[in-house]
Design goal:
Layout lengths: L12 H9 L4 E6 L2 E6 L6 H9 L11 H21 L4 H15 L18 H19 L11 H5 L5 H37 L4 E6 L2 E7 H26 L1 E2 L16 H13 L4 E2 L3 H6 L2 H27 L10 E2 L17 H25 L9 H25 L5 E2 L1 H10 L8 H4 L1 H14 L3 H7 L5 H7 L2 H4 L21
Parallel strand pairs: 5-6
Antiparallel strand pairs: 1-2, 3-4, 7-8
GO cellular component, one term: cytosol
Keywords: Lyase
GO molecular function, one term: aspartate ammonia-lyase activity
Length: 503
Amino acid sequence: MQGTTPVQPTTGPELATSVLTGGGPTRTETDSLGSMQIPADVYWGIHTARALVNFPISRRAISNYPSLLRALAFVKQASARANREIGVLDPAKADIIDAACARIVAGEFHDQFVVGVIQGGAGTSTNMNANEVIANIGLEMMGHGRGEYEHLSPIDDVNRSQSTNDVYPTAIKLAMVFGIQKLLVEHRLLTQAFAAKGVEFAHILKVGRTQLQDAVPMTLGQEFRGFARTLTEDFDRLSEVIPWLNEINMGATAIGTGITADPRYAEAVRRHLEELSGMPQETAPDLIEATADAGIFMTASGTLKRAAVKLSKICNDLRLLSSGPQAGLGEIFLPARQAGSSIMPGKVNPVIPEVVNQVAFAVIGADATVTAAAEAGQLQLNAFEPVIAHSILQSLDWMTHACTTLRVNCIEGIEANTVRLHEQVGMSVGVVTALTPYIGYAAAATLAHTALTTSASIAELVVEQGLMSAEEVRRVLSPERLSGMVPTTGAITLPKFEEPPVE
């Protein structure tokens, strides 16, 4: 098109160097494909540089997931300790790697984890980014320059006894455990907020609904306690996933046969990883199966989707219950968080439940991605674990933030519209259901029809027709009985059955 400059492909060593360095000071690093100029001030190296050139996809670096960086550092730290223990790595080098990893766990150098979360190679770029950063931190601690790998190698030392194919799945599982633990904290607080509203609204009667039509009475407290209970179930299901994620395949190396790893390594690294992470770790009984299988990721993602869908349904209910406020249900007041329209003055929208709905939609989509990626693995390895990791870790982050904002900016400030609720119960023909044990279904149906066509009160009609006394109606239609808190309603009196006369 005239007047535009064509985009140059990111290929070739000269262009790659220009993209990575911006013309600043560099150092030269070499791998099996050749040499590249690396910015002199970074802690990553040539393998990371190639990934930056090859995978400009998501524009979202792995540093967006601090839990993954902590997990990677724990795995590398545990490996260094295991290698030192079994005598396959120089103790001085092992101690330096250990110390470098500890600094990453503490939050240092996270900006050096720059490879994109979406990458080819089954996570190799992420593993190499970690190896290079750890090596260069260690070199600096040893008094050497960055890139002087003859003193501390990213591969021969930091990656000793390891492969991407055991490091990466172990790290992303551990990161998911950290993410679930963080989500569970906020999820429990949200559950408690719903339960507190259940207590606050315990004696406020309202009309229950089925299929968006008036049903029988209940209390607003029962409705909110129901929300709390359904969240409790998801808390339990999410908690149950953690032990499955704690099964690791460290020691598997490339495909599960343990090639290049000492036979003592798997147990040693498991023990050290357990100690460092504070989470129980179990070596998979079949490392070949564990390296190829992505089933646990489907379980984790599916459980998270379940929690998201159920939370979204609750948010749908909140939006319905607060709709109006004049022309909708208008049973509750959500906290006003921001102006709702650029054209309609005074309009306030349920923006907090809406954003939680959107998080749920994203989690549903992410689960579909995880399912497809798990199915697409071939033979001894699933090459698509990066998109699995990204999908689940993002869903965990978003769900955690969604729980927080829903609790703080919505649930804790909800108020009941008691005037409207009282009016709706008084006008509802649904209360007639409570009278059927006393007056029979046929009479109750007739009363309901009359009330609907005349707008008369059910209670008044029952008394007027002499079916029950005012005191009996008051007792049966009390909030405690209508909501089931006092379940006894009495027995229905049936007319005596008489056989028809014989003609």
